[in-house]
Amino acid sequence: MKFNEDSRVKIPAILHLMRLGYNYLSLKTNSWDHATNIFKSIFDESISRINANNSELDLEGLYNQIALDLENEDLGKAFYERLIDRSGVRLIDFDNFENNSLHVVTELPYEKDDDSFRPDIIILINGMPLSFIEVKKPNNLDGIQAEHKRMKTRFQNKKFRKFVNLTQFMVFSNNMEYDDENPIPIEGAFYASPSYQESVFNYFREDEGYKVTPDFRELSNEQELFILKDNNLLSIKDSSEFALNKDTNTPTNRIISSLYSKERLAFILEFALAYVKESTGIQKHIMRYPQLFATQAIERTLENGGKKGIIWHTQGSGKTALTFYNVKYLKHYFGKRNIIPKFYFIVDRIDLLIQAGREFKSRGLIVHTIDSKEEFVQDIKANIALHNDTGRAEITVVNIQKFKDDPSVVSNKDYQLNVQRVYFLDEVHRSYNPKGSFLANLNQSDANAIKIGLTGTPLLGDDYNSRSLFGGYIHKYYYNSSIADGYTLRLIREEIETSYQLALQKALEDIKILEGEGKRKFVYAHPKFVEPMLDYIIEDFQNSRLRFDENSIGGMVICDSSDQAKELFRIFQEKYEVTEQLNLAADDPESYGKKKAHERKVKTAALILHDVGTKDDRKARVEEFKEGKIDFLFVYNMLLTGFDAKRLKKLYICRVIKSHNLLQALTRVNRTYKDFRYGYVVDFADIQKEFDKTNRDYFNELQSELGDEIEHYSNLFKSKEEIESDIEEIKDTLFYFDTNNAEAFSRQINQINDRQEMLNIAKALNTAKSLYNLIRLTGNYELLGKLDFKLLHKLATEANNRLQLINLKQNLDANEETTNLLNVALEDVIFAFTKIKEEEMVLADKLKNTLQRTREMLGGNFDPKDPNFISLKEELERLFKKKNLSEVTKEEMEQNIKALNAIYDSAKEMERKNQLLRAKYANDAKYARIHKRLMEKDPLTDKEAKLLEVLQSIKSEVDNHIMQNANILSNESFAERMMARIVVNQIRNKFNMEINAEQSKRIYHMIAKEYLNEFNGRAA
Asked: pTM of the full predicted structure?
């Protein structure tokens, strides 16, 4: 039986979509506009039905306008606005989603000029391809990252702009459960919105309280047979593997239910997408699943008569975005009830007002700001719901810093009955003292108002807490979930080195420290103390840039006092600040290394204190830091909360920070950035004790919330105990192997042929490699003696090589010889140059891209026995074997690029002809291969058209026999005799062609072998 991504994942997924109410279309009997991939006849019929009462409907004019919208360089924004518009001509019926036409097709070509790609599964809504699904078989090479890289290349290609603009979201799955220990998406089913640059892959986990419950429809045997026949997979019909993969609970089928069930799909298309103007250009965001369920939870609260509550979503989980999505959804929710909602976003600092206003504007909201009590009173008493006359969604951002404790009551007793105020209160862990007046004033201003508190770290304690002030939790999303979903990072706490501790101790003695708080602050701000601390910080940070091979990261120092911050900045300016540019001669062979070393140095810093500079100055410095123009920030109380800069990856803490403020500060470095797996906290103040206390408070709060599910929340840091536990697991895994002798170890693992066993060994050794770095980072040097990490590093290389070979052997047995040989060859090429000029770097990228393009073109070939293919493959292998491509000269690179382009051009022409021939056999690669073999040697006829007619007739009869009884193929001798009869009868009796016994035997052997290879999963 065929055992590949089509049989294991794609076909079961298509059947699952049919169970959800989608109708399957065969590309063989349908037509579409190749410029847009819109199925015009379905589009016309659907739009006419949806707009039956609209006399102004002009189908041709509408279609032409859509085609123009798709030409824009706006990531599809104009088209999306048209797509969800409920007024005028509607493209989707959101009021009655059953009134829409839902179809699914497979491998629809997305083509422009010579470039093309074919998504595995395409979702059509009213004839428009608005979403697609790419599937891989489990344990595919590079996991889901392979598809991530491929999609990035495709969507950056301007030839595909129309298709990118048309696509609303995508799903990628290798039909595996998520690996929550790995922050990089490799295993599982993910969803993403399109991007001209790089799409972000999101996890999706159903919330038990809001789980989708589709009404699956039963599929007939005829429907299933039609799908299998259309995809030339009749042989899998009665297999146990196929039956298992059709289960509704596979990872791929689960995410399809979650995103494509009709009610959920309607919600996603109308409310879960947002266009965001960023510094890199326009981006399209899609709701993260906790934001989706929080929105549903808010709706349920309102439906049950609730007026207040808390959204507890961890820091970095997108609470501003959540507010935007809820403005979008609640405007619709209240609009259905003829109520006009008026939205407020309450903050307690001017910098947060500016930041929130910028975030909302970037998403297209009209933003009105209030920074004084007088403005707030005036707004409350105004008899208008909106400050703009365009009808666009609007939010008022209010900074309460100046009047949160003003005792005078803001009241409005004659508010309009059809206006509903909705307050989103940011970070309700601070500034909302029940003994103060703001909460009372807010309640007085409008007793009917809805108040939704947002926090990542609720107030805890016996005196008062967030729940007592704002009501129960509407929805919760904790650190562990956020880390598992890749939205935030775990933290590693680094203690300062012993040698530096001694240097500090000496500095303190030199200053002759005196007792008392005032004296302590004086001492910690003294130049003799500050200068060695700064030296350590700069050296440590520059080493981090080198260790992570990433010079774009930034650092921040949370100082003991404002005086210490000022002294640190003063010494930095005198000792480290660099203003001049590095000038390098163009022909200097060492220029690249010098440039990288210069980039690694810390050259710029800013001091952010409330009493230094103006607000505009501080705002400018913060923006420059976010943009990477400033390396370091020195702060005291500012920027500890509400400050997001993804490149901030090292935090140096020089004082103890209390309670929830500590978690707020720590999570400044937990945002995802490039390939980082952790955020790093350097602890000068021994925060561990305070962190443990804060953690205990959270455990208690979680215990009351979660009961027996307390295990879903754990320590933010990777602790010494966790590292020790990992070491013990490594020892257990490697117990039976000689880990003292690399050669003996290599011989032992060479006896292993089981992939899973080898995978466990490789995983243990690779974990050891990671632990070695973690131990050094965390300062637990005594753990280095527990294992011989240097030798284990060598053993890891051997284990990975053995695992790669086992994978290769399995691939050779699974009809993937050529593709994976080329994949392995490509992955082995590392482009690393020690002495290199800019033009050589450009060439290296070009060589790598050309190699990848050539490999992909050859890798897609379905006929590995084609003499032309064999010749091209051997030529490509010759290039690999000739010399390590990472060590070639500029001239050799140019020659290799030329040679690769020649291979690519030949492979492309071969692929073009292959696909034309395959199409003549209803895309059945089996008969395309048979056709070619019969024309290459002792042809049955000189006329290819005649051969096509004969083989098509044979195919039809053989497929009908298999359709009636797929078990025929389980008896090879019987299957071959059946095919022998069909071949002889067709050629002699139907087509009256002469054929001898040897010829007929060759033909039916060839046909039988193709079918049996497919059935048994053997290589073609």
From this structure: 0.71
